[in-house]
Amino acid sequence: MSATEKIALGSILTGIVVLALKALAWWMTGSVALLSDALESTVNVATAVAALIAIRIAAKPADRGHPYGHHKAEFFSAVLEGVMIIVAALLILREAWHGFQNPGMLDAPLEGLLVNGAASILNGLWCWVLISRGRKLKSPALVADGHHLLSDVISSIGVIAGVGLAVITGWAVLDPALAALVALNILWSGWKVMASSLSGLMDEAVSEDTLADIRATISDTATGAIEAHDLRTRHAGPRTFIDFHLVVEGGTTVDAAHDICDRIEQALKQKLPGALITIHVEPEHKAKHSGVVVI
């Protein structure tokens, strides 16, 4: 099992524990706001399972039917997570509406808030693991899951503070009001997750900093060539795709041109491990006098 799969499995186990704690907090208090927190955790568990499945699919090697690999499976998982977050938000809004219609004081609020606080601390620690490790492993599914948990932690802190205020002031209407605010926050989180994942599905280019590194690497290692033009990049999960045209002098032999390409590919793969690189060699009359000029 890969490191990414182990983390995804850890998300499922952590999500189940957090869900159990938040459900217990809701059962102890009857709070609509704490129920909204628990409902979001059900999404956490479901999306963690989806992320694990997507990561395992993405790890499969290229085959005849998928010659470029299965890396985009992680983006589909992240989009699914965004959809499920939005569904959870709508369910919470429904519960908040019922709470507005029938507001009531809470049972055992202190004990319930302590249990919910313990769940939030656990969520916060795991959120940090997901985002930091997901970025290192270049896993969109893990990063998306981490950002979702981050919004969950922030909303949980607000819920705990707000429910405490409702108990102190005796304003029962604060409980469903907080639930509605949680739902709006979750909706925004779901939209951000979906937007970032859809850009990956649309073959978004690498960042400007990464592109600058690629151009500099080609310029530094393409000795013997004239220029490189029509440079294109895209990324799919942890995999980066790079292709460009390399112009060489007309008298360059096939072996010599091949050596130049090998040198460039090796340097690029040191910068971007696992990158898939395609180089189209052209004679000097194909030069466009633009792009990367070899020095």
What can you see in these coordinates?
By secondary structure, this protein is an alpha+beta fold. The protein is 68% helix and 11% strand. The chain has eight helices and four strands; from the N terminus they run H-H-H-H-H-H-H-E-E-H-E-E. It has helices at 3-29, 32-58, 73-101, 109-137, 140-169, 174-201, 208-221, 254-271, and strands at residues 225-236, 239-248, 276-283, 292-293. Strands 3-2-1-4 form a four-stranded mixed sheet, with helices on one face. Strand 1 (225-236) and strand 2 (239-248) form a beta hairpin. Helix 2 packs parallel to helix 6, helix 3 runs antiparallel to helix 6 (174-201) and helix 7 (208-221) packs antiparallel against helix 8 (254-271). The protein is elongated and about 85 Å long. The mean pLDDT is 80.
Descriptive tags:
single chain, 295 residues, alpha+beta, four-stranded mixed sheet
Detail the poorly predicted runs.
none
Q: What letter string, H or E per element, gives the SSE order? A: HHHHHHHEEHEE
**Strand count, sense and closure of the main sheet?**
4 strands, mixed
Tally the helices: what do you get? 8
What would you call the quaternary organization? single chain
- Rounded mean pLDDT score: 80
The total count of strands amounts to: 4
Radius of gyration over all CA atoms, rounded: 25 Å
Helix content: 55-70%
> How large a portion of the residues is in β-strands, by DSSP E?
5-15%
Q: Structural class, from secondary structure content?
A: alpha+beta
Report, as a whole number of angstroms, the end-to-end distance.
Answer: 44 Å
In one word, what is the shape?
elongated
Q: Give the neighbour order of strands across the main sheet.
A: 3-2-1-4
